[in-house]
Queue: 2 jobs
Job 1
Amino acid sequence: MADDKFYTMGKEKILVIGANGQIGSVLTEALRKSFGADMVIASDIRQVEGHDGPFEILNVLDRQGIADMVKRHGITQIYHLAAILSARGEQNPLQTWDINMGGLFNVFEVARESGVSKVFFPSSIAVFGADIPRQMTPQNAVLKPTTVYGMSKAAGELWSQYYFQKYGLDIRSLRYPGVIGWQSNPGGGTTDYAVDIYHYAVRGEDYSCFLSENTFLPMIYMDDAIRATLELMDAPSENIKERTSYNLSGMSFSPSEIAACIQTEMPDFTVSYSPDFRQKIADSWPSSIDDSAARKDWDWQPKFDLKGMTKDMLFQLQKKYSAVV
Ligand code: SER
């Protein structure tokens, strides 16, 4: 969980769009701890139980609906987390583009017109593709994404910069690597295996991995991902030198490394490998990320490595599963 520190003081009223998602749900809780439960309006396309504060149904494709909500609640900051991820996005490319880009334009336009002061837009390692150094991929590597999701994120980064330069809208963005947490489940991503594998281990089941054993990808523990988001949003505007999106990294590992790490705690756990269409997506992405710009501009520093994350994931999931049995 993010530090219980009060980030930006003052009368911020925050709208989280996509608050039921893997990152959105945990981020909403962290924002509520920092800003107060009633100061954070959670929204998503459908209602789920368990929100500890105001929740409203909102379709990101409904621009008027977003505008009304912003006005009604006096919203000053928007966290826009609704998107179709890399693997699922390939099932219906044009629809993915429409949702990811349509949602983005709706949020940016409403923010610009209503005087919202800050917007968070998540980008991804999926913006990278051919012609990059795979190891320690630099901040300014060429962007040639191969998935519609990656294309929408690369375009979104440029639009973020455009809105900042043209309209002064303070949009901030991170290129999240695979995000791993016990609190919520990802859906439709290529890095999802790294969450699934812990659930199988804790349930005492064998795991069949959809990526090959030596596929290295950049990853980050949820606690670090949330803290990075809050720290980026809290940094003074003049420190934000990257107005497209910041490379962000926590760690990098392969399926066989995460399996071995789990096996040190659970020696009977077994993993087999049967790569599917997601292998090609993973092969187009960096194996590790150079996030020195984030470290320099707003003091980014991850806390969790593979070992620390595995210990916490297994502990938290064991607790979670034993609570429901
Ligand atoms: N976790 C995402 C995915 O796999 C990457 O941003 O699609």
Note: The first helix runs from residue 22 to 35.
Job 2
Amino acid sequence: MPSLYYLDRDGLLPEKLCIVGAARSALGHEGFIAQARKALEERGDAIDETAWQHFSARLHYSPVDAGAASGFEALGALLEEVNPGGDHMFYLSLSPDFYADICGRLRQSGLATAGSRIIIEKPIGHDLDSCRAINAALLSAFSEDRIFRIDHYLGKETVQNLLALRFANILFEPLWNKAHIDHVEITVFETVGVENRWGYYDQYGALRDMVQNHVLQLLCLVALEPPAKLDPDAVRDEKVKVLRSLKPIAGRDVLIKTVRGQYADGSIGGANVPGYAREAGGKPSDTESFVALCAEIDNWRWSGVPFYLRTGKRMGQRLTEIVVQFRAVPHSVFGGDGDNDLIPNRLTITLQPEERISLALMNKTPGLTEQGWRMNPLSLNLSLTDAFKTHRRRIAYEQLLLDALHGNQTLFVRGDETEAAWRWIDGIVAGWKQTRQKPEPYWAGSDGPDRAGSFWCKEHKT
Ligand code: BG6
């Protein structure tokens, strides 16, 4: 809702566009508008009242219960009233268990016309089989060029900047391979817990909720070959190739290449927070809220380069970053007495909480020298937040909704991508099952289970 409001305020929504909310609650028209307003207020941004009046006039509501399959007729009637004979864009943001049924209903009722589009939220299923079933149901009602599988990480400015950094500069691409890169780290840490999303989250866990989509998308953008151009299929073809080249982590491999964790009671920012099981009223669960993995891409460019992936809830800090660790120079002309070792270059792309790109380079420490130069690492910093101070930091969904309205799928996930990602994830899940690998506890507010620290550091070559 806030994203749609901002698009409307900036004059980017088609004048006749109506937004119809559909959910189980008997909210009513006014209730829906009040909820949209609340969503905006909760962001803490100043609301432009004229823009709000214009926006709220677009809002309508029709209760629908996807589980009980009721309310679709009334929804159809309302759509016909507000957009007579027009094409619609549907947006499904609910449990993937309902996706296939809803697609069937949209097809049977004639609401899914040749000109309509559908946006669906991740996760697309729970595993490869359920993902295939959803993709088939989607294709029975919409053609692939009308299906927009949303992954909001692709709407984040710095994620797109990763492509700009790689392909709009000459500096990095010649070094972007196993000859010069030692390893890559991708971290997505959140301070929030599962809280009231336990019902959904407990069925999925960190691997399915975060790694299958957001984290693998980040990995793809780091690892993909240069697409011929920034068009939807050129980019997505390259992402699929990366996903298909992921080396399976299966069977007993999971014991050395993965760490699972679940948060226990702890404290974050001075406030006590309950553990995972306590959030569900003390129900014991084997679902992981933290996962660390060592992935490898079996192709010419990346063979043998570890990609360390980790994500967790209730961590000590909110941090999303990609670190590209280059190899050491082959020989130091500066000598080296231990204190003077050259530290390999490191490119850090921070997505959250700040948007920043920094490159750690070795420098000579200023001053007179009698016994050789002293060297120190210093960073070249590119703070997007500072460089574009007058720009409002856009919500990731703004770009994605705008692209969907324009029919541009570059930042959306194609069906074969979702299936390739699930195939790799399913192997890990099967390995956990086979080895009975349970999540290890970690304190809320920490960096994850103890073993994750040593797993991460042990593998560091710097
Ligand atoms: C969602 C996950 O897709 O992304 C959530 O389902 C997670 O569990 C969220 O909290 C994180 O998004 P962001 O943009 O805050 O990093």
Note: Residues 29 and 196 are 25 Å apart (CA to CA).
